[in-house]
Structure formats: C-alpha cells, structure tokens
Design a protein that fits this description.
- By secondary structure, the chain is mainly alpha-helical.
- The protein has two domains: about 90 residues, no CATH class; about 70 residues, Orthogonal Bundle (Arc Repressor Mutant, subunit A), CATH 1.10.10.10.
- It contains eight helices and no strands.
Amino acid sequence: MPPELKSILLYKDHRAALVDYANGIVRNRARAEDVVQDAWERLQAVERGQPLTEPLRYFYRIVRNLALDGQRAWKREILRSGGEIGDLAEMVADDNPTAEAGMAAREELHIVLSSLEELPERSRLALHLHTIEGLKLREVAERLGLSVSFTHQLIAEAKLHCIKRLSGRP
C-alpha cells in the first residue's frame, strides 16, 4: 500500500479520537480540529522521508505537542493583552456545532451512505463488520469465509472508495 494511502487511512480511522484527545487539552473543538489537521500534515511530511514503525503513536505525540504549544501561546497572548488567567474560562468557545457544521456533517454522511451503496455486497459487509461492529480482520475473514489478507484488501478498497467520494473524486 502506498505511504500516502496509509497516511490517509490512518487519519480517517483515528481522526475523531485524535480530535477528542486534542479537545481534552485545548478545550475548544475547532482548535482541536486544527491541531489534528496540522499534526497530520507534519506526519505526512515525516513519512515522506522515512517510514515510521508506530505511526499512530507518533501521530498522538504530535497532536499532544501541538495542543500544548498552542495552549501556552494562547495563554501568553491573553495575558499580554491585559487579561487574567481567570478570564480564560469565559473566553473558551462553545463546543456545540454550528448550523453550518451540522449541515456539512449531514451532507458528508449522505455521500458516505451513497458510496457504500455503490460497493459490492461483500465489500460493504466486510467494512461494516470491521468498522461499525468492531470485529478484528481475522473475525471478519472467518465470518465471510475469506483469507485475512483478502479481507484487509476489501476493507481498504471500500474505505478508499468512500474517501474518494468524500473528496469529490469519482
């Protein structure tokens, strides 16, 4: 599998958890999203130069470092502008999604559901069992009567199809 595809799949599979992790540090969902995006770009740059043995662990480390650095810079800026540490709590943005974000999420969900319908039944089922039901590759392979490597290939291709559709590519 090409390194850029691995990076995309890693990002797609773990983005929500990474955003939650960053949000626990920065206490602002929008900034947490930005931190994860920046971290992913750094991860891609590093992987272009050398393959990583534990890319997910490295991804979490980058997220943590960027989130902590961002918090420190944000606090310095608040204090520099005449605020006090106690004022920080009042300045934290609301984590509730905006109406636009809700509409965008519904549109993305519609695209994903449509792209799933385009998949062959076996690919759709393999993806569902692995991603939604949380079965391990070996368990999915056993249930479908396939080899683990072929099951992995089915799931990767199904995810790639959804990613391509989300990015607007046919």
